[in-house]
Amino acid sequence: MTEMTTTTTSPVLTATGVTMRFGGLTAVRSVDLDVHPGEIVGLIGPNGAGKTTFFNCLTGLYVPTEGSVAYQGTVLPPKPHLVTQAGIARTFQNIRLFANMTVLENVLVGRHTRTKEGLWSALLRGPGFKRAEAASKARAMELLEFTGLADKADHLSRNLAYGEQRKLEIARALASDPGLLLLDEPTAGMNPQETRATEELVFAIRDMGTAVLVIEHDMRFIFNLCDRVAVLVQGQKLIEGTSDVVQSDERVIAAYLGTPFEGAPGAEEAAEVTAAEAGAAKAGPTDGGATDSGSTEAGATDGGPANPGAAKPGAARNEAQRGTTARTEDGQ
Ligand SMILES: Nc1ncnc2c1ncn2[C@@H]1O[C@H](COP(=O)(O)OP(=O)(O)OP(=O)(O)O)[C@@H](O)[C@H]1O
């Protein structure tokens, strides 16, 4: 890992006023975000909120329409290889491995920014590559041990199970010795055991001195893992804070459930409808037979429209997790 000074409070990442427009669509609007050494920061938001676009701005895949991205205080040019060289690595929402290369070779490719031989030399195994090969191989094996893939080093990456491929992506990203790792939906498509293992892996990455910024739809994962969470909605940062603060914020719940929150357009009307339905539910069961009253009460509770004040974070979690499942089935 890159040596980090854990005592410093200056951020590894400083994104300032990042805006990304595609024609008439503003996918990301003036977003500020800092990540400090030793932190795990979550970036959440409904589908289409602009999370991946923001990542693409951070890593130089997109040139932001406005704003700047700095790594350890130095503003980065929006060029992916320079961003990686500076110390930011990433994984992608859709796995991007070299399918016909071995697990070890995939990690070695990820090391090319830290060897003077470069990518082509690594791919073509030129003489310069051979000189650096031993050291790179040792580092790559270390990372495979770290991610639990050492026994698969000689396997073709396409033969790995899905969860292992995700781990290999992380190992490859770590091969550039980043000070900041960006993970885009690292648990998408994983079962609960794999998700739990990924959580442990991210903690271990942080403990080794690499700060982490992670996009994820699995709210349980995010709120267990992150020191801080930022929420994007329609390209804008809605709120940023600790897991406790964010998961109990009505606006976050509303953004996930699609229900209005206090002060939102239509909130007054929604409150009137809720009150009217509550009144109707009260009047209804009393007139009915005693045998019906239990089930009618239950119906009044379950069947009422989502009340922003009564919505619970758990509901938001479940909703978000359902969203993830659906996306996975779609082949994300
Ligand atoms: N290259 C592009 N050209 C035009 N529009 C784009 C492009 N990339 C993203 N968008 C649009 O920008 C908006 C934000 O998309 P983005 O993929 O960043 O959202 P997201 O929060 O990552 O969503 P998800 O959780 O579904 O991955 C969407 O409306 C999307 O259609």
TrEMBL record:
Region Disordered, annotated ranges: 261-332
Name of this protein: Branched-chain amino acid transport system ATP-binding protein
ABC transporter domain: residues covered: 13-259
Pfam family, one: BCA_ABC_TP_C
Bias (Low complexity): 261-285, 303-316
Stored PANTHER family: AMINO ACID ABC TRANSPORTER ATP-BINDING PROTEIN, CONSERVED COMPONENT OF ABC TRANSPORTER FOR NATURAL AMINO ACIDS-RELATED
Gene Ontology molecular functions: ATP binding
Repeat found in the keyword field: no
Sorted UniProt keywords: ATP-binding, Nucleotide-binding, Transport
CDD domains: ABC_Mj1267_LivG_branched (cd03219)
Keyword Thylakoid appears in the UniProt entry: no
Gene3D superfamilies: P-loop containing nucleotide triphosphate hydrolases (3.40.50.300)
